[in-house]
Each structure stands twice: as structure tokens, then as C-alpha cells.
């Protein structure tokens, strides 16, 4: 591939913006009481870093193919997100006891209802019916539902501890289960049954690769992979940088403090959300579902073991059990998701149902 083609695949702005965003992050990290214009500048570069991350993720995905491309973006975002959670928990004391639970649950609602819902709606409106592979999708959703039940629902009902938290033995089991199931999921998705996670046509034919464009050169893909990592660091770091302003706005509006976590989760998962919608518009709904379900699986499969290890040196409780309201939302999501994914085809109605559950989560976060 010529150098001209490589430049077309990695535009100048997509390389400059992430680097400038990280430089800005380095200068603003740890500073409190930043002026309004500085916060506005952070927000602008945050948006630019999100767009750059989406672009570079698509370049990498085009090079390695599905489902590896979706896995790269999902794991990269989640690893940085987990690092942020552990850092905040280490600095937050008792007030951060429920941070991991709230963040993971927010990620589940965003991915399983927000990303899945908008992807199905866009895909179905474009082609009347959104088509995907039920074998891989149902398997991934079953793993997500199992880990969500073990890690978030079960702690509410255990009797070894007085609060919605695991005992040491139970936490070790939950962490091991998360690691094992996530490992099995990755092997299933990328090795043994990769064809279950590839996009399909309306006739059921597997689309092995993009038929409309040749993949980028290896050098271009490696450059995009590095810039993707830089972009994601900038997204998560700048999201944390603007969080004090978000907290002040939430407090001034009289909203619950948990709304801050929802806003931060929305910002962190924005690259995946945009990538999923763009894939659905190209009639690659399976790719969109890979992003949503893969992110949900990575969020639980990496966060729970990380906080389990971090709890060794952190003081205070680690609350993982959901409350009654969130338990109902999780149960509805599992039931509706099962009915949506089993047929392998979805109309705009299914997309609307998932988006309604996501809207209910947002409303209840604002008005519990």
C-alpha cells in the first residue's frame, strides 16, 4: 500500500489530537478548582480523543478482522477504566465502597441496553430487520448474565456478612469465576468458534471480511493501535479531569451523587457506542453486538478480579450487591435480552424495548 493510502487511513488530525490531549491531561492532572475556560478546553479535547479512538479502532478492526477488532477496543477501554476505578477506590476511602458496583452496573446498562438498543434500531430501520448470528450472541449474553448474577446479584443475598458484600472466600470465588469465564469467552470468540461472531447477511451467509475495501498496511495498523491506546488514555483521564465540574453541576441541580458515575461511564464508553452505531449503519449488526456484549463481559471479567486484588491493601467495605431497583432492571435486561437474541433477527421494536430499559435506568439514576 502506498504512503498516500496510509495517510488517508490515518488522517493528520487523528494523530495530533490524541497527543495534544495527553499533553493537556498531564498539565491538568490532579489540579482542583480549574477555571471554566480550562474545563471547556478539556471537554473539547475529550470529544476529539473520542472521535480519534473510534477512527483508530476501525482501522485496527479492518486490519485484523472480526471479532478481533471489537475485542481490541472493548478490552483496551475496560483495562483503562479498571485502572481508573482502582485508583479512585484507593483514594476515596469508605465513600468509594460501592464505586466498583455502580460503575460495572452502569457499564452493563449502557452496553446491554444502550449500545445494543441503538444498534438494533439503526440496523432494523436501515434493512427493516437487523440480522445477527444467534449462536455467538446468545453464548456471549449467557456469560454476561451469569457473571452479573454471581458478582452483582448474589452478594445481596449472602449471609456471611451483614451488608451487600462478599466474604473473603466468596470474593475469591467470584474473581476466579470472572477470570475463567472471560478466558473461555475470548477463546470461544477468537479461536474455537470465531465464525459465530462474524457478521451475516440477511440470507444467513457469513461475511468473513470487508468486501468493499482492502485492509490497511501492517505499519498503518500498528500506528493506529498505538494512537488508539493514547486516545483511550486521554478519554478516561480527561473524563476524570472534568468530573469535579460534573459533580458540582450535579450537586447544584440537587441530583443524587450516583449520577456522576453514570455520566463518567457514558463518556468512557462513548468510543464504543459511536463505533457500534457506525457498524450498524454499514449493516454489520453482529459487529455492534460484539462491541456491546464484549464490553459488558470485559467490564465484569476484569473489574471484579482487579478490585478483589485491590481489596487486599484497601481498607473499608467493598459493596457489590445491587439494591432492589437495580435488581429489577438487571432481571428485565436478562429476560428481554434472551428473547431478543435467540431468534437472530430483530425489528425496530426490540431496539426500542432495550432503549426503554436504558431510559428507565437513567431516569431512576436521576430520580431514585
UniProtKB/TrEMBL annotation:
<feature type="transmembrane region" description="Helical">
    <location>
        <begin position="169"/>
        <end position="187"/>
    </location>
</feature>
<feature type="transmembrane region" description="Helical">
    <location>
        <begin position="68"/>
        <end position="89"/>
    </location>
</feature>
<feature type="transmembrane region" description="Helical">
    <location>
        <begin position="12"/>
        <end position="29"/>
    </location>
</feature>
<feature type="transmembrane region" description="Helical">
    <location>
        <begin position="35"/>
        <end position="56"/>
    </location>
</feature>
<dbReference type="InterPro" id="IPR052946">
    <property type="entry name" value="Alkaline_pH_Ca-Antiporter"/>
</dbReference>
<dbReference type="InterPro" id="IPR004837">
    <property type="entry name" value="NaCa_Exmemb"/>
</dbReference>
<feature type="transmembrane region" description="Helical">
    <location>
        <begin position="104"/>
        <end position="125"/>
    </location>
</feature>
<keyword id="KW-0472">Membrane</keyword>
<dbReference type="GO" id="GO:0015386">
    <property type="term" value="F:potassium:proton antiporter activity"/>
</dbReference>
<dbReference type="GO" id="GO:0005886">
    <property type="term" value="C:plasma membrane"/>
</dbReference>
<keyword id="KW-1133">Transmembrane helix</keyword>
<feature type="domain" description="Sodium/calcium exchanger membrane region">
    <location>
        <begin position="224"/>
        <end position="365"/>
    </location>
</feature>
<feature type="transmembrane region" description="Helical">
    <location>
        <begin position="349"/>
        <end position="367"/>
    </location>
</feature>
<feature type="transmembrane region" description="Helical">
    <location>
        <begin position="221"/>
        <end position="239"/>
    </location>
</feature>
<feature type="domain" description="Sodium/calcium exchanger membrane region">
    <location>
        <begin position="40"/>
        <end position="190"/>
    </location>
</feature>
<feature type="transmembrane region" description="Helical">
    <location>
        <begin position="137"/>
        <end position="157"/>
    </location>
</feature>
<dbReference type="Pfam" id="PF01699">
    <property type="entry name" value="Na_Ca_ex"/>
</dbReference>
<protein>
    <submittedName>
        <fullName>Ca2+:H+ antiporter</fullName>
    </submittedName>
</protein>
<dbReference type="GO" id="GO:0015385">
    <property type="term" value="F:sodium:proton antiporter activity"/>
</dbReference>
<keyword id="KW-0812">Transmembrane</keyword>
<feature type="transmembrane region" description="Helical">
    <location>
        <begin position="291"/>
        <end position="313"/>
    </location>
</feature>
<feature type="transmembrane region" description="Helical">
    <location>
        <begin position="251"/>
        <end position="270"/>
    </location>
</feature>
<feature type="transmembrane region" description="Helical">
    <location>
        <begin position="319"/>
        <end position="342"/>
    </location>
</feature>
Amino acid at each position: 500500500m502506498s504512503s498516500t493510502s496510509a495517510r488517508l487511513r490515518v488522517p493528520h488530525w487523528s494523530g495530533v489530537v490524541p497527543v495534544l490531549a495527553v499533553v493537556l491531561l498531564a498539565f491538568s492532572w490532579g489540579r482542583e478548582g480549574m477555571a471554566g475556560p480550562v474545563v471547556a478546553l478539556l471537554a473539547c479535547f475529550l470529544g476529539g480523543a473520542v472521535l480519534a479512538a473510534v477512527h483508530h479502532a476501525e482501522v485496527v478492526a479492518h486490519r485484523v478482522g472480526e471479532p478481533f477488532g471489537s475485542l481490541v477496543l472493548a478490552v483496551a477501554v475496560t483495562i483503562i477504566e479498571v485502572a481508573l476505578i482502582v485508583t479512585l477506590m484507593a483514594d476515596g476511602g469508605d465513600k468509594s465502597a460501592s464505586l466498583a458496583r455502580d460503575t460495572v452496573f452502569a457499564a452493563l446498562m449502557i452496553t446491554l441496553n444502550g449500545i445494543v438498543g441503538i444498534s438494533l434500531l439503526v440496523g432494523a430501520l436501515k434493512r427493516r430487520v437487523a440480522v445477527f448470528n444467534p449462536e455467538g450472541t446468545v453464548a456471549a449474553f449467557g456469560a454476561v448474565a451469569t457473571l452479573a448474577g454471581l458478582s452483582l446479584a448474589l452478594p445481596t443475598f449472602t449471609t456471611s456478612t451483614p451488608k451487600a458484600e462478599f466474604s473473603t472466600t466468596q470474593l475469591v470465588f467470584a474473581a476466579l469465576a470472572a477470570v475463567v469465564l472471560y478466558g473461555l469467552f475470548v477463546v470461544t470468540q477468537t479461536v474455537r468458534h470465531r465464525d459465530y461472531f462474524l457478521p451475516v447477511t440477511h440470507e444467513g451467509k457469513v461475511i468473513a471480511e470487508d468486501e468493499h475495501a482492502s485492509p490497511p498496511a501492517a505499519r498503518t495498523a500498528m500506528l493506529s493501535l498505538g494512537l488508539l491506546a493514547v486516545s483511550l488514555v486521554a478519554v478516561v483521564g480527561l473524563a476524570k479531569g472534568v468530573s469535579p465540574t460534573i459533580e458540582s453541576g450535579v450537586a447544584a441541580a440537587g441530583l443524587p451523587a450516583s449520577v456522576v458515575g453514570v455520566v463518567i461511564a457514558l463518556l468512557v464508553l462513548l468510543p464504543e457506542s459511536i463505533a457500534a452505531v457506525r457498524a450498524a449503519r454499514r449493516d454489520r449488526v453482529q459487529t455492534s453486538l460484539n462491541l456491546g456484549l464484549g464490553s459488558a463481559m470485559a467490564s465484569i471479567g476484569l473489574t471484579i478480579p482487579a478490585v478483589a486484588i485491590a481489596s487486599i491493601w484497601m481498607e473499608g467495605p467493598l459493596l457489590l450487591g445491587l439494591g432492589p431497583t437495580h435488581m429489577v432492571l438487571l432481571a428485565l435486561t436478562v429476560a428481554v435480552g434472551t428473547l431478543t437474541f435467540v431468534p437472530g433477527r430483530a425489528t425496530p421494536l426490540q431496539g426500542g424495548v432495550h432503549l426503554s430499559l436504558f431510559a428507565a435506568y437513567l431516569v431512576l439514576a436521576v430520580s431514585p
